[in-house]
Amino acid sequence: MTDMLSQQNFERLAYVAFIAFIFSMPLFLDEFGLNRFSKYLVYGMLGIAISLAWGYAGILNLGQGLFFGIGAYAMAFSLKLAASSTAGGKTPIPDFMVVNAEPNAIPELSSITTGSWIWVPFQSQWFGVAMALAVPAILAGLIAYTLGRSRVSGVYVAIITLALVLLVRLIVIDQQQVTSGFNGLTDLAWFNLFGLELDPYAKSTYLIIAFALTIVLLIARWLVSTRAGLVLQGIRDNEVRARYLGYSVVSYQIFFFVVSAMIAGLAGVLYVVAAEFASPTFLDIAFSITMVVWAAVGGRASLLGACIGAIGLNFIGATLSETESLMNAWQLIIGLIFIVVVLWLPRGLAGLASDLADRFVTRADDSKWNRFKSVKHTQSPANR
Amino acid sequence: MDERRISFAVKDLSVDFNGFKAVNGMNLSVYKGELRVLLGANGAGKTTLMDLISGRTKSTGGKVLLNDKEITNWEEHLISRAGIGRKFQIPNVFKELTVRQNFLIADCKETRVLPNIVRGSHRELPDHIARVVELTELYDFLGTEAATLSHGQTQWLEIGMLLVQNPDIILLDEPTAGMTAHETRKTAEIITRLKGRHTILVVEHDMAFVRSICETITVMHHGQNLAEGTVTEIENSAEVQAAYLGSAGIGHA
């Protein structure tokens, strides 16, 4: 009992320290540093999404970039329109569409290029935000339902999600007249949050992103602490037993997969707000796999661990790549960190931290004595 | 022939694994509150029969009836919700979770996702779980990961989870396998206590154990119901003896 309480306290302490840390960054960083760190926070949010799907639901999604990319593009559609002017018609037209338009096309969003009508509702930036959450949610629901129904699991899920993100990347690049293809969407407007223009280099924007990350972290933490979260961990551990207790495995997986996708979608929105562009590189397989590495290093079974893993690895990566002597070796170093963690710390840095906390915070002799006593206790049949 | 009500039954149940009929036209009716023992040599189809009843394996012919309602080839979780619980031959628990968490998940009156989010997790074990924990002697191990329990404790944990789940019908596949003498005695005690309140179908080879707990035995052979009767009838049945010829006999099957 005492172990459990101090474990809980340790975890609570780690959450408080982390939140205090991210909110104190404006004290240490200039505006450029702050803008860069806000992108790390977005990666941290992706770490949470991976941890929820992989660490808790047991679904290794190698295509998390799909949800992130959809979120980013949905937001970028809106912010692009906000920055565009009309081309002789009533609706604003993104510059790349003007270039791609047929010579005599009517210069309205609904008609200027094939499929450009899809942009029409994105004139409202809140529609962009809504789609950034809704589309990943619906897609994730369909994927989890289909895979769950046909009882596809393990490495096959990874391969299918990988293929999906590739497929969408191809479509985005191919449909240049709607998506701007390879070039991605640049020259975006600032997000207008109830009158506040979110300048990516402003302290307020950083704080809003930090606040969003905090909320996502706490909601995810709360979700896994509920009974549903417990059942989900049971399902990850032993699907058969869970079914035999009457739980619909697929329902639980759908729910948490959808939540994970929505977090990734939100991360896409915030990334566009901070970075002012959206590009097909978000849908690169390498990016999706990198996310999994962040979570593995931080500890996939710990939401905070995966989040810190993402932020930490990006911070280390950026620092190393800017250190002249290490400029060419930084990816190697990140790779080494990954290998070391996978080989010796299967539960990631979060697992290491919790083991250390166990050792130092709880009185080790005390818990050993308890276990010794209880073993003696059950071994004598006369007891009960 | 009997005025008692049938709890569950299988009729002409068959399954075909690429030409091999593990269960081949099996018939069985178990009455409410009865404790029925299923005997049979290795490969007779006992575990497959349990797989078929509980939905793990889909049958290729015949029916499974629960309270006269057909549940053939339903999904496992729906069969479970309809009131059939199962203990596997190889202990089947949530190994990465603590004993406490195992018990909490087994308390499965509410199985839907959304209500389980609103509910939150219990801090204190509810009384009905605490009683089972006491009965299965796992009180000192509540915070222990199930993977580190001894074999016997894991078996009890699974039986305990079944008790918490509290299904009308319990399928027990060799509940005393690998247990010490003390553990076996205790298990027999637990099962006897369940008798009457639950309908139980148990695969068990320990004849002393069988004699002490059961009234009717069903013997399976080549995926079919070979014989049915009391312990004495079965032990003296020429048919059963013929079927066991070549193997070491009932007690060692």
Automatic annotation (TrEMBL), chain A:
Pfam families, A to Z: BPD_transp_2
Membrane topology, as annotated, equals: Multi-pass membrane protein
Q: Which CDD domains match?
A: TM_PBP1_LivM_like
Query: Where does it reside?
Result: Cell membrane
Q: Give the highest taxon in the source lineage.
A: Bacteria
Span-the-membrane segments of this chain are 12-29, 41-59, 66-87, 126-147, 154-173, 206-224, 244-271, 277-296, 303-321, 327-345
Q: Which UniProt keywords apply?
A: Cell membrane, Membrane, Transmembrane, Transmembrane helix
Presence of keyword Cell membrane: yes
Citing just one GO molecular function, the answer is:
branched-chain amino acid transmembrane transporter activity
- Enumerate the InterPro entries for this protein: ABC_transp_permease, ABC_transptr_urea_perm_UrtC, LivM-like
Assigned GO CC terms:
plasma membrane
- Fetch the PANTHER family from UniProt: HIGH-AFFINITY BRANCHED-CHAIN AMINO ACID TRANSPORT SYSTEM PERMEASE, SLR1201 PROTEIN
Q: What is this protein called?
A: Urea ABC transporter permease subunit UrtC
- UniProt organism field: Pontibaca salina
TrEMBL record, chain B:
Q: Which GO terms describe its molecular function?
A: ATP binding; ATP hydrolysis activity
Q: Which residue ranges does the record assign to the ABC transporter domain?
A: 8-247
Source organism's superkingdom?
A: Bacteria
Q: Which Gene Ontology cellular-component terms appear in the entry?
A: plasma membrane
Q: Which Gene3D superfamilies match?
A: P-loop containing nucleotide triphosphate hydrolases (3.40.50.300)
Alphabetical list of PROSITE patterns matching this protein: ABC_TRANSPORTER_2
List, alphabetically, the SUPFAM superfamilies matched. Answer: P-loop containing nucleoside triphosphate hydrolases
For this UniProt record, give its keywords in alphabetical order, as a comma-separated list.
ATP-binding, Nucleotide-binding, Transport
Name listed for the protein in its UniProt record:
Urea ABC transporter ATP-binding protein UrtD
